[in-house]
Design a protein that fits this description.
Layout lengths: L3 E9 L7 E10 L2 E7 L11 E4 L3 E5 L1 E6 L15 H19 L1 H17 L2 E8 L2 H11 L2 E8 L8 H15 L7 E3 L2 E2 L7 H13 L5 E5 L5 H6 L6 H7 L7 E5 L5 H10 L2 E4 L1 H7 L9 H6 L3 E4 L4 H4 L4 H16 L6 H7 L2 H6 L17 E5 L11 H8 L5 E6 L2 E5 L2 E2 L4 H19 L2 E3 L2 E3 L5 H4 L2 H18 L3
Parallel strand pairs: 1-4, 1-5, 6-7, 7-8, 8-9, 8-10, 11-12, 12-13, 13-14
Antiparallel strand pairs: 1-2, 2-3, 5-15, 15-16, 16-17, 17-18, 19-20
Length: 484
């Protein structure tokens, strides 16, 4: 008995043959796709448990956000008008004052709102690195979406010691990896060369040895002083740092690479590591002297590059489709036209991202035998019709607001824009309450016209230990760059 049948859809399979069915049907049984084939007239009178008429609509694999920080979902809009250096100061302050000031309920509401937003934007899988991973695992699991979650390990930023953070990470992995029927898995997530001591890297290497199936998810080369930071851990450069600890291979996810060069790109590709590209966050603030990451070299050496949205408080976006569009425009601006085709971008958001997460045998394309993670997009509107070149429509014209129905593991989580897996009003009420507490207890002044940070000095709002350790690790050049 078919549990779910979707018929008369334009099905973009993203399979090996790049197959697109103009009038296609997808059958799902026990959460697994059993067939993808042309629609038979009998499909329209099917007795399947759940039938969706997708006439005039497009079905694509569920979108995969390859890099996300989620703890501070509720600060959306607070930092939007700050410059890069001021934002870093306020982010440090908020990270170190929110937990004791606002408590667990703040982060619970943040994670639940994040899951709601991801779901309604067609994101069925998120790869997250956060300081509240337990809350994230439970929120992701209960919402019905899929998540790879890693406790962010950074003893130059987090006041907990390296040994404490590593022990917490081990407990998280043992408790939450492969939970919620396999939809929630764990990763090992050191913050990067800027935030981790040699002791922490040694502990990360031990974790990797003990949990060889987990992805290693980290930031790399997001500062011009990256080599100097790596030298603090006894390495020549950030890639050498990872290599010395046996952390650079096909299970490694490297985020940003803003200041990497052609040789770095070759070494990354040779290792089989994956690149998680977050274009808008850096173009928003033009962080650093280099304007873009080494895309031509990464493409030359055939490195796997995928897309992530990064922090919600940087530029306040949850639209992964638009993020891919920005990736193409910004890369074309820097390096010349046609850096990526429309179909390249679609693969980056689906099957390539699944490969980066080690999940391409389960998700990322619409093929028999894979889990049924998919999004149905309504293009039967004057804004989109008529059209040709469907990949171009999906990556240039469609926005997340066109996502109508979302299915994960064969479960219909949202249908015709009505969310079925979450109590939307409860989530919104909790988010509104915690957002108001944030403003009253931290001193942020907000209105419809904008927001203003607290007047009290950052040095009085942040404990000295983590701030000073971060400043020492960043080095004199970065401290001067950010006006600390």
């Amino acid at each position: 008995m078919t549990d779910l049948l979707i018929h008369d859809a334009t099905v973009v399979t993203v399979n090996r043959e790049n197959q697109i069915l103009k009038n296609g049907s997808i059958r799902v049984t026990d959460g697994t796709i059993s067939s993808v084939e042309p629609t038979d007239p009998a499909d329209r009178d099917s007795t399947a448990e759940h039938v969706i008429d997708a006439s005039g609509k497009i079905v694509i694999p569920g979108l995969i956000d390859a890099h996300r920080h989620t703890d501070f979902t509720l600060v959306q809009g607070l930092f939007s008008e700050l410059d890069g250096s001021e934002l870093l100061k306020e982010a440090f302050a908020l990270y170190h004052t929110a937990e004791p000031t606002l408590g667990e309920s703040f982060f619970e509401a943040a994670w639940e709102l994040a899951c709601l937003r991801q779901l309604t934007h067609g994101v069925t899988t998120v790869n997250a690195m956060d300081f509240t991973p337990e809350l994230g695992a439970e929120a992701v699991g209960e919402s019905g979406v899929r998540g790879v979650i890693g406790p962010e390990l950074a003893d130059f930023v987090n006041p907990a010691s390296a040994s404490e953070q590593l022990a917490d990470a081990r407990r998280f992995i043992d408790t939450y990896h492969d939970s919620y029927e396999g939809r929630v898995t764990a990763s090992i997530a050191p913050g990067g060369e800027a935030g981790c001591s040699r002791e922490l890297w040694e502990g990360v290497a031990e974790l990797r040895a003990d949990y060889p199936d987990l992805r290693l998810h980290t930031h790399l080369y997001d500062s011009a002083e990256a080599d100097t930071m790596a030298a603090g851990s006894g390495a020549d450069d950030p890639l050498d740092l990872l290599d010395r600890y046996g952390l650079l291979d096909e299970r490694t996810l490297l985020t940003h690479l803003l200041h990497a060069n052609r040789d770095d790109a070759r070494r990354i590709a040779d290792a089989g590591a994956h690149v998680l590209h977050c274009p808008t966050v850096y173009s928003y603030f033009q962080a650093g002297n280099r304007t873009w990451f080494p895309l031509p070299a990464l493409r030359e050496f055939d490195a796997n590059v995928v897309i992530g949205l990064d922090d919600p408080f940087w530029f306040d976006s949850w639209d992964l489709i638009q993020e891919a569009k920005h990736a193409r425009m910004l890369s074309n601006f820097q390096y010349g036209a046609q850096q990526w085709s429309s179909y390249d971008l679609l693969e980056m958001l689906t099957i390539d991202a699944a490969r980066a997460l080690g999940l391409d045998d389960q998700i990322g394309s619409l093929e028999p035998g894979k889990r049924a993670d998919l999004a149905i997009i309504d293009v039967d509107t004057p804004r989109h019709q008529p059209y040709s070149n469907l990949p171009s429509v999906l990556t240039n014209s469609v926005t997340a607001g066109d996502v109508e129905t979302v299915v994960v593991d064969g479960e219909v989580l949202m249908e015709e824009r009505a969310v079925r897996s979450m109590d939307v009003e409860r989530v919104r009420t909790a988010a509104t309450r915690e957002r108001e507490r944030l403003q009253t207890r931290t001193g942020w002044e907000t209105s419809l016209a904008g927001s203003t940070p607290p007047k009290k000095s950052i040095l009085r709002r942040v404990s000295a230990r983590p701030l000073l350790r971060a400043m020492r690790q960043y080095g004199r050049g970065v401290v001067n760059q950010h006006n600390w």
